[in-house]
Every structure is written in structure tokens, then in C-alpha cells.
Amino acid sequence: MILSIQQFERTGIKKLEKVIEKFLQDPTNMAAFVQGIQTEVIALGLDLIKETLEDCNRMLLDSGKRKTEWAVVRADPKKLITSLGTVQFEKTLFRNKTTGEGEYLLDRILGLEAKQRITEDAEAKLLEEAVQSSYRRGGEAVSLTDEVSKQTVKNKIHALEFPCTAESSSEKKVVDYLYIDADEDHVSLQFKEKKGDLVMGENHWKNNCVLAKLVYVYEGIEKESPKSKRNKLVNPHYFSGVYAGEKNQELWREVYAYLDSEYDLEKVKKIYLNADGGGWIQAGTDLIGAVNVLDEFHLKKYLLKMTAHMLDSAEDARKELNQAIKMGSRGNFREVVKRINDCAKTEAAEKRIAESAAYIESNWSAAQIRLSNRETIKGCSAEGHVSHVLSSRMSSRPMGWSRLGVDKMAHLRAYYWNGGDMLELVRQQKKELPKAVGAENDILSCKEILQSERNKNKALGKYVESMSHSVSSETKKYAWFNSHIWGL
User: Is 171 helix (H, G, I), strand (E, B) or coil?
Assistant: First the structure.
């Protein structure tokens, strides 16, 4: 670090002065001024990182503890992409004298995996951009001065593992009602199992769709601000992924685990599940013990389809249908449907009425609950949330995904909307590195060593107290890093 600062004093400061001089000569060129300052500051930062890492490697070479167990093999160059830029430094390969294994001990101390070339901070930047825009832009955002390919971004996202629901809190929330909305996004695939396996159907469409499921839990709805006309969900939490077939139960188990960890479910009066009546959603109703409610969007959609041909009488017809559903009379509902059907003038209109009526009757209880209990049941915003949480990134523009890519991106979008920390997610991907010979020994940290010396000084009395001394920064660095060496 000292050499980097000395080098900056010799050349960097002069370069900064020139940048400032150019700006003062032409104050209108603010962009060039800022860019010039940024270039020099980044260069200093990269030099500091390089020198510090090489200092650590040098301390490994000089360590007596290391020499007893590890022999030097050779020095190799290493490149690491950080969020600041690419750092090039030299590290040493060592061989264990007992086992004969070869290892870069500096990598172990830094927590770097074999062949890792992107640091945690850079990978977090990559994910922060890729979850919002594209793989390509994620690769460009990885560093201030460098980028990685979109294939690298794809590989990183495909390898992600997401954290399970946190353990139960000692103080769970107490609420009267909880709400769950569920829906899905239809995402286009490039292929099912391998490229080229999509077959054109009779309708001349390729069957290349996969469902990305979205479920979110919230405590209610409130105004964004006292005078706002817009509403927002209270404490929403999102779950998303493909969860095809038997894995659908896994999705609902995750939802239940979250509810159980956050809320005192024994004190919740009811959990309402707003949805369109899909089969995969019914499984959640049963597992969680929720009350199934037909979402308002689909109810209105099918009522509108049934009465579209009624012209001026459409509104009155919908009111009659609503009243029949609310009162729970299937007979009255069918009578109204028959009168509406008598007004139909085309087979297409009759077919539309029959399909809409069948849909409502198949979700009769859920539709009745929607219309009969307006005080505690909230409006469903699943369609809008699917658009914002999933479609805006995955299906609103022409895109082709792999099934794994859909699942991982859906999980990542949910993690992002839950306010997840991308750096923390990257750190959770770390595999536990194996311990080297001697790691089982108890190691004193630098802090403990310094505290021990202070305690000795107190015991020696006034003679030591009268002595004024300090530990140089280089000595401190050696002591701090040496504790890690003793952990090898």
C-alpha cells in the first residue's frame, strides 16, 4: 500500500493537477473533468488492491509456520475482476509436505474458489443489473472498467441457490387477516429439453410455453400516502419459480413456512387466497387452510364476456348475475344466463356465454365469497404483479428461455422484489473450503494478541505506563494476516 501511495504522489497527483488545469481552461467540459478524476482514482484503487494482495502473498512466503508444512512450487499471475476494475497480481502455488497436495494458500485465505475470476462485489453488481434488464447489460455492469460475456452472466444465474425461509422469530406478528394472491406468467422457451425439439402444432404455433408461478403474501392494502389515489400492499413477500408437477407442493410448503415463521397463525382469523381457480392454486388452498376467493379480474372478465352482446342492457344483466352469485342461488344464476343466451344472435356468442357460465359455476363458492364479503376481502392485484414482477423482465418482449433459466430468473426476481441483498446472495453460494493440515489447532487472533500485550503492560506497573510507543501500520498488517496464516 505504501508503494502505491508513493507512486501516486509521484505521478498520480500530477495527472490530477493536469485534469484540473484543463477544466479551469474550459469549465464547460464538466464531463471530461469528472471522467479524468474518475480514471486516476480508479487507477489508484486498483494499485492499492494489487499491492495489498501481493503483500499478503509475500507474508505467506516469509511465514515460519508456512515453511514447516508447505513448500513453494512456483509463482503464477492471477486476474480478478472486481467492481472497480480488473486487478492483476502474483500469487504462489504451495505443496503440502505431508499430503503432497498443491494449493494457492492466498486463495484459501481470501475465500476464493478454484479458477474464480470474479469477486463477490462484482458478481453482486452483475446480478443487480441482470435481474432488471438483460444478461448482456449485467455483463457490462460487473465492473467500472471491464465487462464479462452474457454467457458468463447466464452461467452465474443458472448456478444460483436461493436461501430457505428464515427460522421463526421469537416475536411473531399478530394480525386478524392474511391475504395470498397467486397467478402465473407464460414464458416462451427456446427448447424443451434440447435445441430443435419444439414441434409445430395444428394451429401453426409451437408449444414452447412454460408457466412461471407467482405467489405473494400480504397483510392488507393501504394508501401510498394520505392524499394519494394509489394503493400499496402492506408488507408483501413474493415467491416465484417454475415448480412444475410434484414440485408445486414445494412452492406451497415454502409459503406456509414463511407464514409460520412471521405470523402467529393461531391468532389469524382467516387467510384468503385470491386466484383464478387454477388447479395448481387449489393445492395451496388445501395445504395452508386458506379460504379460496375468485379474483375480481377474472370474475369481471367472464361477466363481461357473457353480456358483451347485450348493448344497453349489459349493465343490468351483469347486476342480475352478480346478485344471483352473491345470494348463492345457482337456479337464479342459470335463469339469468338463459335469458342472456336467448338474446345471442350468433353461435360464437352462445359459445362464449356457455364457457363463461361454466367457469363461474366451477368456481361458485370462490365467486360467492368474493361478492358477499367486501369488508375483509381485498381486491386482487395478481395480474398487475405478474406484469411487474415477472413479465416486464421475462415475457413482455420477444425472448426465448431455457426451463432452468425461467426458474432461476423467477426466483431472482422474487428475491429482488423482497428487497434481498445481492451481495449476501452471492456470499451464500460459497462452498465451505476444506481445512488444511493444522487447522484444528487453536489460533489466537491479532486482536487477542494485542490485548494480551496490553494486559502484560498493566501488570508491569508505572515503568511501562511511562513508556510511549505505537505499533506501525506494517507491523499491524503482519500481525492481522499472520493469524490467518496460522489457521492454514
Answer: coil
Containing 449, the helix (H) or strand (E) segment is helix 446-460
pLDDT tens digits for 127-184?
999 999 999 999 999 999 999 999 999 999 999 999 876 566 678 999 999 999 999 9
Q: What is the pLDDT of residue 286?
A: 86
Residue 90's SS3 state is strand
pLDDT digits (tens, 9 = 90+) for 65-86: 899 999 999 999 999 999 999 9
Q: Is the dihedral of CA 397, 403, 409, 414 positive or negative?
A: positive
* CA-based end-to-end distance of the chain: 24
Instruction: Tell me phi and psi for residue 275, to 5 degrees.
Output: -165, 180
Structural contact between residues 210 and 406, judged by C-beta atoms closer than 8 angstroms: yes
What is the torsion angle, in degrees rounded to the nearest 10, for the CA atoms of residue 81, residue 87, residue 90 and residue 91?
-40
| Residue 278 to residues 45, 177, 224, 238, 244, Cα–Cα distance (Å) | 55, 23, 31, 19, 13
Residue whose C-alpha is closest to residue 146's, from 96, 207, 81: 81
Give whichever of 207-211, 226-230, 271-275 has the largest mean pLDDT: 271-275
**Backbone phi and psi for residue 209, each to the nearest 5 degrees, phi listed first:** -110, 140
